[in-house]
Amino acid sequence: MILDKKTIIISGASRGIGRATALLLAQNGANVLATARNAEELSALETEGRGKIVVVPGDVASETDMALVVKTALDRFGTIDIVINNAGYGVFKNVDDISVDEWDSVMATNVKGTFLLTKAALPTLKAKGSGHIVVVASDVAKRTFAGGSLYTASKYAQEAFMGALRKEVRPFGIKVSGVYSGLVDSHFHAKGHGHETSKNYLQSEDMAESMLFILTRPAHVVIDEFMVHPLTQEY
After folding, report:
1. For this structure, is 201 an active site residue?
2. Which CATH number fits the domain 7-228, given the four candidates 2.40.160.20, 3.40.50.720, 3.40.30.10, 3.30.390.30?
């Protein structure tokens, strides 16, 4: 139980990488506070967590919701040790086909959501003089592609946010890690999880194992950036 008594908040936990990570961390002894917008899927996750996962439905783009998530973690477990900003989604269109509403929605989830959950948890982490903030970004925080202007812009913004945050919180003993995944077989893709075209992609469980590795390094070690791809994907 290498994460015994650690309290971890994870967003976007109802499916995919977030769900797999919540389950793996709970299996390794952590107390997990899982949040996402889909209350029904969260409830199923809580059941599978067998008492180690507490769920709070909420929207990462809502300051009120993220304040409630942090309050619930503190009320239930007494502290916060790790925050995993995993919530995110994409819209993939040429620039002139992207609506203003689509732009605002993706930025609200991917960028504002990362900011709001991190901000809500920071006072607790600073006060205890330790902690770990993880942002699940994407390899497209490092590259661009046609039709990806909105999604890549949101991921580049996350990258810049992490870079500045890392410098701000290191004096408080807080680690910041960016996780950059390549193609993952999940509901994120238009053809859905388990489609024939994605059989050689990373699995959500692969990303969960990556997260477990990052979070269980010795206290003096921080993995600033962790890039992972399926062998079949060029980078």
Report:
1. no
2. 3.40.50.720
For tokens 């920071």, what's the residue?
A: 122
* Catalytic choice (151, 156, 180, 201): 151
How is the chain split into domains, by residue range? 7-228
CA distance 91 to 102: 7
Amino acid at 8: I
Whole-angstrom distance, CA of residue 166 vs CA of residue 224: 9
The residue whose two tokens read 């809500």 is 120
Give per-residue pLDDT as tens, 174-185: 999 999 999 999
**Bridge partner residues of 202 (DSSP):** 184
CA-to-CA separations, 227 to 49, 79, 207, 216, 230, in angstroms, rounded: 28, 29, 10, 17, 11
Q: Residue 165 carries which side chain, given as an amino acid letter?
A: L
Q: Are 69 and 8 in contact (CB under 8 A)?
A: no
Q: What is the pLDDT of residues 14-59, one digit of tens each?
A: 999 999 999 999 999 999 999 999 999 999 999 999 899 999 999 9
Residue 3 near residue 22, CB atoms below 8 Å: no
Is there a contact between 211 and 190 (Cβ–Cβ < 8 Å)?
no
C-alpha span between 92 and 100 (Å, rounded) = 14
